Amino acid sequence: MSARDERQALSPRTTSLYDYALFRHGIEPEGRIPSGGFPLPEGFPGIDEDDELDYGPAEAAVTEALAPLLADPDTDRAAESAQLRLAALPVEPKTVHRITYWIGRRLTPDDPITGTARCLARRLARTGSHPAAVSAGLGLLTWLGRPEDVPCVRTLGMLEGFADPAVEALERIDRHAAALLWLTRRNDEPRVQQLIEAVTSEDSDAVRALLLPPADPPPAPWPVPVARLAEVVRLDVLLRAYPQDAGLVGLAGRMLAVMADPYVQGPRFPDYSRPVPLYEAVVAGAHRLTPELDAHAMLLSLAIDLYSGAGAVLDWPPGRREELLDTLGRLLARPAWAAVTGKAADGEGDAGLRAGWIRRTGRRPFARPCGPDRFRLEVVVTDPAVRSLVETRILVDGLPVVAALFPIGVCQGPRALLDNGLLRAEAEPREVQLAWPHCGELCCGALHVSIRREGDHVVWDGWRGSEGPQPAALRFDAAAYDAEITRATQDREWEWPAHTTALLIARGLRDRPELLSAWDCGEASAHPSWGDPGTVLVSFAHERGLGAGTQVPDGPRLYFEWLVPDDGSPPQEQAAAALRRLAAGDPRFLASLRHARREDAEALGFPWPEEEEE
Question: HSE-up of 65 (CA within 13 Å, CB side)?
Answer without folding.
Answer: 25
